[in-house]
Structures are given as structure tokens and as C-alpha cells.
Amino acid sequence: MQLKEYQRAALDRLVRYLQTLSEEKARAVEAAKLKINHKWDEAAWEQLEPAERYQPRRNALGESVPAICLKVPTGGGKTLLAVKSIDLINTHYRGSQTGLVLWIVPTTQIYNQTLAALKDRAHPYRVQLNLASGDRTLILEKQAVFTPDDIRNHLVVLLLMLPSANRQVKETLRIFKDRGGFEPFFPPEDDYEGHAQLLRAIPNLDAFAQDNQLAAATVKSSLGNTLRTLKPIIVLDEGHKAYGELAQRTLLGFNPSFILELSATPTAQSNRLVKIGGQELLREEMIKLDINVYNRASADWRDTMLASHQHRQKLEATAIDHEFNERGPYIRPICLIQVERTGEKQRTAGFIHAEEVREFLISNCGVPKEQIAVKSSEKDEIEQIDLLSRDCSIRYIITKQALQEGWDCAFAYILTVLTNPRKASASITQLVGRILRQPYARKTGRIELDESYVYCFRDTAGDLIRAVRAGLEDEGLGDLTGRVVPVGEGGQRAEYSIRTQFAGYAGKVYLPCFVVRDQATGDWREVGYEMDVLSRIDWDRIDLKHFETLPLNPARTENLAIAVGLDTFAEALRPTVAADMPLDLVFITRQISDLVPNPWQAYEFAAETVRRLRKRYTDDEIRRDLAFVIEELKQQVRAQRISLAKRVFRELIQSNTLRFILISGCLHNTIPDKITATASPPLTNEMGGLPLFSLFDYRADDFNTVERDVVLYLEQQSWVMAWERNFARKGYGLQGWHPMKVYPDFMVFGNGDAEPAAEFQVVYVLETKGLHLKGNDDTAYKQELFALCNELCQPRPWNEMFQEMSRHRVRYEVIFEDEWKRVLNTMAAEQG
């Protein structure tokens, strides 16, 4: 599964944090020898997030526990980030790919969904875990029994629900009860000294005491005690729900070594290392927006149901046409319907019942009964059904509350709310997130299939809009509330023409793009990464001499935060040497398969790595530190692939095979005459007025805070003649030596040193970056690519195809949150 740009940036940031954390922890060990208390967890945080105060955590043993949060909105791929993060935590912090992960979720729905995905060996989440563990992953539930060998030789993921983790819930105290199966983790029952040593090392273990004598106490062989001895990584899904005093005490009572929190709406107590907003998801085509809201004034719910049924029919017709005439993906739009009653004995007058809606759809709308399903606590007609399969016929799902959390299906397009008007707002707030996910995380180009819809009756329009926007807030998408569109009140999507004073720019102003000469036709075409760059990489130039001097830790024996192999006749906490992962060349090859397209070449890299390491280490020594070896190999191949791709790119430029020129035919490299937008609130300045120099009337929710500050400052500059907001995937993009195109944020057209100027003389192409992105690999690449563009834009006859445009200068700049004003002031000074 290919990561989105914001996901790669999030994981890059996590790696930097984990590396810093490991360095600071090593300093703390040295400081402790001098009796200096070095707060290593706080020191690591301050290096990456100096502006936010770190909230320290300590487990029940009094040990510092790194605890960080990834803020990921609904539909942002938080589970994928979680499984990737487990691999990174094991590699860069724990130094082992085996051990225990305690994955805690808040609801049954999320539990079942997560469990099904992690157990499915073909699912991308499980595939990632298997890649990280060498295909040695165990997915367990709380009733399962595992052994020390399982922990030593596998990545064990134990799934729990938050109420089950809460020690005060009576019906779930069984995980702390003494039961068979976990005895190998503890000393023999009559080894009182062994039990005493264990209790001194881990005082919060539950134990049976005889006459209140600790010396005669025996530790319970319970699942809860086993977890405490293993010091697991905790993955906390919907982490904002676990900040009650009791919940925190329970979680820290498991003696975790690391806590990874995932939440769309983290609390002020969370240490938010990664903050992903709705704009990032929208730019990466992860969600269906706008949300078009239909408020039916009719007092008869059947009118609303009929309207949403007819809309769903139109959507399916559009999906079929898109699939067969435009080779689009398979999409079967689904309508979610919320009713007031679902119980078999709850069908009474005055309440809208699920069966009543089912009958209406069959009798009045002609819907086949197999296309309708009810999801409730009593009846689950979508259980074990793959709703995304072509073999599935379901198009309507009727529910009361069963889909409010944790459930999602990308085919869900329409939410129809038929509840009491006093309860409708709350229902919409809870359910709106269920219709946001974009099928296949890729826009279709058909507006109808790239947006979502809400139908409601007997509700006031204002309350309805507020409820939908509150739903977006709850899903971590608060920066997109302007994309909620009241249909029928002037809020539909519409085409907006370029402003009259700038009409002469449309279709006549081109921006440079990288092009290559097609060998077959002799014509110039836009460069493609795989076709023109990746295919030319000389893989024989990959140099793996690094592994001849790579220092391993062949003495690594502790694969657990605390060793779990207990020897009846030795000390109670003897570390046990683990088998780690197999020294399997095919396995190593699979780890770099996403970096090297040719599997035979990837296998040769794996073999060469092992050959070079064998000059200094035995196979057992390499095996013990294989996780570190694989990560080093990934880094070496990734870095050298980028370097070789850049070399190819430069050589193509030097040979005149690749050029950076103004040319028609490149995708979106000219100013359009129209854009499609909604009637959400427009971008305004501090005085409430519209911008004067924007090519179009842009929407306020098309800008984050930094971007808004930049364009409003540009509005005040005398040299600025016009500016354009660029949109990812739909606007001007630069294809360089990385796989993904770079889509700058703005184009600014200035008058240069002409005063006054009838036409613009200079174009600034700007990319804005927040402080949290400063210094990461993606930002560094964009800076280097922009520098190359500036180099190629130096005065020369670089525009051979449009000589009349050659006088226009183009300059590319990456500007950061803490320095954008200085950079813009420099631009202003250059005009005079």
C-alpha cells in the first residue's frame, strides 16, 4: 500500500523522534552513573516540539514512558500509520522486531473491524506487520494463551477493548484472575524466593499472600500479571477516550514501555507529535467533499426517503457509466438510513421503524429485498459481508445507532436521517463520518462520485448545517467545515470564471515544466518518473560497502523490555537469548521490494549485504541484530536510489534530452478560465473585504492559517499584480526525480521593475511549510528541486517555443512559517 505524502511526513517525523529518544535515553544511562537525573523523554520532545509542553508519563514502576499522539482525522489511515509505527518503534527504539504489542480499542465495532483486518493475512495491515516481523506475527484476543517462546520469537499483538482493560469493570476482571497457561512466565508455585524476587522487581503484580506475609506470597499467573512483566508497547486507538483518571491508571498499570496514541480529536493532555488536518486528506483524495445537505420540509418521512433513493439511483448510474466508458473503478453507492426503532417488539405508532422503511423501499421504490440490510444490536445482516465486493448486492443499510462509531465503508455516499427532530442533530453529528471515505482513496473526476450527501426531514436548516459541521469537528476535520453545502440555498457547486480584469491571462500564460523528447514521435512530452527516470537507474551503482564496517550488537539478547524466561533453578529474571528473525534472503528481499522494482536485483542486494556482514560476524550474530541490518539496508538503498535518480535527471538535462521550458500540453501548466467551487464563505481580509488581486474568488477553507497570512500580506504589496491558488493533483505540478509530483501552493505575478506595468514581468512560485515540516526529507527535496528550477530559469533563451514570453522571469521559493514575511519583503525589494 503506497503511502500518501502526509503519511510519509508523519512517519519521517516519528523516526526523527525515536532516534532522538534513543540518544537521550543513552545519555540518561551515562548521567545516572554520575547520579544525575536526565529527563530523557522530556529532552527528546523539546528538540522536536519546543513550542508545546511535554506531558510526562510514568508507569506503575515509576519508569518514564514515552507517550506520543498521532492526530489523524477520520479517513486518514490511522490504522495503517499504527502498524507502520510499530515497526519503527521496534527498530529505532526497542531494537527488536519481536515482543508484545497491546492494542486497545474503545468499542466492539472498532474491535471487530481491527481484529478482522489484522487476522487477514492478505490485508495491507497484516502484510505490513508480517514484513516487520519476518512473517512471525501472532494476533491474539484476551482469552488466548501464549508462551515465553511466542514472545521471544514473534511479534505478538494482543487486542483488548478499553472497558476490558479497565480494572474496575467487574465482568472483565478475569484478565487479572489466576488461570492456567501463563505459568511459564512465573516461578514455580513453591519457589517462594523466586516469587519474592519477582515482586521486588515488579511490585504491582497481583499476588496471593499467606497471613499477609510478603515472603510467602505467590504471584498470580494471570494475563494481567503477564502483561505487566512484558512491558508492552501500547497502541491506544481513539486515545482521547482514555484520559479519565481510572483509565490512565489502568493503562500505566500494565507497565508499558511506550504508548502510541491515535486520535482524530486529542485532548490537551496528549503529546501531539503529528498533527494532520482535513486539508491534507482532501489534497490526497482520501475523503468525499463537499457534503451536500438536503433539508426536506415535508412532514412525511417517505418523501425524504424517496428523494434519497432517487439520488442513490442516479449516483449508481453515474458510477456504471464511469466504470465502463472511462475505465473507472467499481463503485456501488450505498445509502445509510437512520431510524428511530429497530427492535422486533418496538414497532409502535409515532416512531419510524427499520422494517417500515424496508417495506417502503421494496413496495414503493421497487428495491429488491436482497439490496436492503438492517444493522442493529439484535439483527446484523451485514456481518461477515464484504460490502466492497462485486458479489455484494447491498445498497441500503438501515440502523439506529450500530454504525455510529468505528464502522466505515467507502461506498457509503448518502446519509438519510429519519429520526425525531429533537434528536436528528445529535444523530447527524455522530454519523456524518461514516460517509466521508473516498473509494480507493482516489478521486474519480466525476463530481457526483467525489462528494457525499445528507438528507434529513423535519429539521431547521440552520440546526442541520450546524450538526453536520459539528460532525466534521468530531472527526478531526474542523478545518473543512466550510465544505458543508446547504443545497437549495445557493450553496451548490458552481463554476466560477476568472475575474474580468485577469481574463487575458487565461489559457495564454504558461508555467515551465520538465519535458523529454519522445523517441517514437520526436515530440516533447511531460516527463514521467517510472518511464523516464526509474527505468534509467543503473542499479549496479548501488554501493553496499557500508555493511563491511557496520557495527552490530551481536550480544543483543533482551528482546523484551524485561526478560520473560524464568529458570526454576536460577535467578527469577534471567534474560533468554531469542531466535529473533530468520536469516532468510527472501525475507530480506521482501523488505526492500518497494524500493527496487526488479526482484532479482533486490535479492542480489540482500545476498551482498549478508556476504559483507559475514566477513566480521557469524550468522547467529547477524540474526540477533537483523532488524537493525534491514533498516540500514532500507536506508542505504532508499538514499542511493534517490541519488541515482537525481543523477539520471541531471544527465538528461545535460544531454538536452530533458528540458525545463514553457510549452503547451503539460497537465495544468496554464491558467484556467474557470474553476469549480462551492458557495462556502469566501476568503476575506481583516476588514471583511474580498482580495483584490486573486485570479478567482477563492473559498476561505481552501487555505490553512499560514497560507491565508501569506496571501493577505501579498495583497498589500504594490508590486503584486495578481496571484493564483494552486490545488494538488488539479493544478500546476513539477515532476522531478522523486516519484510524486510537487504541487506548489501559489503563483504570484509581479510587475518586476516596470512602473507601472501593463503586463507582469516576474512569476514567483511559492510553497509554504509549517515549522513541523522544516528539515524533513520531503521539504529538503522540494527546496533542491526548486533550486534546480531557478538554475534553469536563469536568463537564457530557455523559452524557445514561446519567444514572446521569454522576458518573463520565473522563480521558485519554499517559505516557512517563521520566515515567510522576511522572504516576501526580499521579493518586494528585488522589484525596485
Features:
34% helix, 25 strands, 7-stranded parallel β-sheet, alpha/beta, Rossmann fold, 832 residues
Give an overview in words:
- The chain is of the alpha/beta class.
- It folds into four domains: 55-186 and 221-276, Rossmann fold, CATH 3.40.50; 288-476, P-loop containing nucleotide triphosphate hydrolases (Rossmann fold, 3-Layer(aba) Sandwich); 514-659, no CATH class; 662-831, Trna Endonuclease, Chain: A, domain 1, CATH 3.40.1350.
- Helix 3 packs parallel to helix 5 (124-133), helix 14 (421-431) packs parallel to helix 15 and helix 17 (585-591) crosses helix 18 (599-613).
- It is globular and about 90 Å long.
CATH architecture annotation name of the largest domain: 3-Layer(aba) Sandwich
Roughly what is the average pLDDT, rounded to an integer?
A: 84
How many discrete structural domains?
Answer: 4
Q: Enumerate how many helices there are, as a single number.
A: 23
Question: Would you state the CATH class of the largest domain?
Answer: Alpha Beta
Q: Give Rg in angstroms.
A: 30 Å
* CA-based shape: globular
Class per helix and strand makeup: alpha/beta
State the fourth-level CATH superfamily of the largest domain.
P-loop containing nucleotide triphosphate hydrolases
Into which percentage range does the β-strand content fall? 15-25%
Residue stretches low in confidence (pLDDT < 50, at least 5 long) are 557-580, 796-805
Instruction: Tell me how many strands there are.
Output: 25
Helical residue percent band: 25-40%
First-last Cα distance: 50 Å
CATH T-level topology of the largest domain: Rossmann fold
Largest sheet, strands/sense/barrel: 7 strands, parallel
> Order of strands across the biggest sheet?
3-4-2-7-8-1-9
